[in-house]
Design goal:
Helix content is about 0%, strand content about 45%. The chain is mainly beta. It has a four-stranded antiparallel beta sheet, with no helix packed on it. The protein has a domain of about 240 residues: 7 Propeller (Methylamine Dehydrogenase, Chain H), CATH 2.130.10.10. The chain starts with 6 loop residues before the first helix and ends with a strand. The protein is globular, with a radius of gyration of 19 Å. It comes from Pseudenterobacter timonensis. This is YncE family protein. InterPro entries: Haem_d1_sf, Host-pathogen_enzymatic-act, WD40/YVTN_repeat-like_dom_sf. Keywords: Signal.
Amino acid sequence: MTKTLSTLALLIATTLTGCAAHHDAAPVPAAQKTAPAAAQTGIIKRELADGLYEMALNPKGDALYVASAEGFKDVQGGVIYKLDPATLKSRGRSHTDLKNFALAISPDGQTLYVTNSLDGGISAISTADGKVKKRLMFTERNKEGYPFGAREILLHDGLLYVGGVGEPGVIWVVNADTLTLKKTIKNAGQWVTGLLWSEQTGRLYAANGGGEILVINPRNNRIEKRWKPLGNKPALLLNMAEDKATGRLFVTDNSKAKTTLVLDINTGALIRSLPVGDSLAVKFNAARHELYITQRESGKLLSLDATTLAVKRSWDLPPHPNSLLLSADGQTLYVTVKQPFNKDHSTNGPDSVVRIALQ
């Protein structure tokens, strides 16, 4: 790269859905047996490229897009990979001048929205030709002079919500059609990490590195509530998922609390803290009534019964399973699996994409 990574930029670069610290692996309950991905039925694993992060499925279900920042040592720009969602074979790729991290896709499937985290911006990319149609660079800078990292991105009702990694962090509200900034929600706590739109409450939820969940009214873009489910205990809350039928909010932490929290989405009350160890990405599957959690340090993907929250099944996906994506019918799960970083920000091999048939 042409410039030195700042502390906040490195946090984003190494762990878009994780935490920079490394810990001893937490074991899966003994009753759950696992096997390498190659030996597990219903799994396709493909080594693809360096720097894989989030994924998006075309609404028609005929294309899987994977964001890649590529390498972080002497590599400029990134790539958006287009894969066959059934076989993971390549169907195209778009080389970009900036590095790519989080992804969202328009309802018509014609536009990909990607965060360019290290440069503090977002890009709108045409799925027809892979060209950047529009770009928005944010102006906030940290004390070192580096841009706030544009981390997570969420598309809802024509608006893009983008979490800004800063101290304090911000949430940018952007018109998805014009890629113009409509509002900056300030004082969002230390590092805005995860974003979730609740279908039950009609509110935006944001997680941050200070152990808070922010509840935001989308009509006026104001923070209505600040929950701290673990009180004064250290927590770096990351990713969220919702079970709208029961009003439960699932929140992961793989760094400090090393758990998955189950909260009442209306009150923020802590229902349970799951003893599953380091928890990274999380997805709720209403079709199968299951909850999926990646464990970055343990190298595992867990499937939990959504009623009892007991582990039903686990998959070995070493070294570091990262982001999750669920198909619209709830029958296919996609996972990015990352390689560890060396001290010089290089890796020992390409990251992978895994397709798991859940039937």
